[in-house]
Amino acid sequence: MCYQTKITKKKEEMQRHFDAGIKGLDEFEPSEVIKAFDFPKTPVITDEDEHLIQLYQWGLIPYWADASWNRNYTLNARIETLDSKPSFKNITANRCLILINGFYEWQHVGNSKIKYEIGFNNELFALAGLYDHWADTKTYTVVTTEAKGVMREIHNSKLRMPVALYTQHEMRAWLHNQEVVPRYDFTTNPGLYQQQTLF
User: Fold this and answer.
1) How far is residue 89's CA from residue 92's CA, in Å, rounded to a whole number?
2) Which residues span the membrane (predicted)?
């Protein structure tokens, strides 16, 4: 799963890297740790305009949901079940790129958990996402897949990882609803934080 990301790059850097204009990013502040359960607004590019960076809120709310919708369950979406889950099956063509320069996962080692920063040498890249519009709220979910490579060693309890896209070709393919091969050739920074568990 994926519940913490990092976006420390300035708006101008994102604009140059993704060849996109910027709209409504006044609320955005670069951050070392962005936590999904805070339902933050973060920079995305949608298939509606591939040359525009906007702020969408993490935690998808389907267009048909009511005000009591619990976004904790739609922070992530398993790629294997997008076509069958009620929250996602009607919006599988609503593709977006979630712009980041790192994400975090915990490795379980004995009774401890070690936090890793994962990415591509702190460079900008994107996570694959789906989005929806509910009332005046624009929201997204991070698409995840089975962990491969180093992610099987790091995320060794759930064995999941976000679908990461690094090249412009990979990003365009996702936005155009084409098949993509998730990247797993990540660079990692281990031991950022170690937490003892009580069980």
Assistant:
1) 6
2) none
Amino acid identity for residue 143 in this structure: V
Burial class (CB in 10 A: 0-12, 13-18, 19+), 173: middle
Reduced to 3 states (helix: H, G, I; strand: E, B; else coil), residue 117 is strand
What sign does the dihedral 61-9-113-149 (CA atoms) show?
A: positive
- The per-residue pLDDT for 95 is 98
Q: Which alpha helices (DSSP H) does the chain contain, by range?
A: 11-18, 150-154, 168-175
Residues recorded for the chain:
199
Under 8 Å between Cβ of 102 and 6: yes
Question: Among 32-36, 105-109, 125-129, whose mean pLDDT is lowest?
Answer: 105-109
* Encoded amino acid at 95, one letter: R
Q: What domains does the chain contain, in order, with CATH numbers?
A: 4-196 (3.90.1680.10)
Distance of CA 4 to the CA centre of its chain: 8
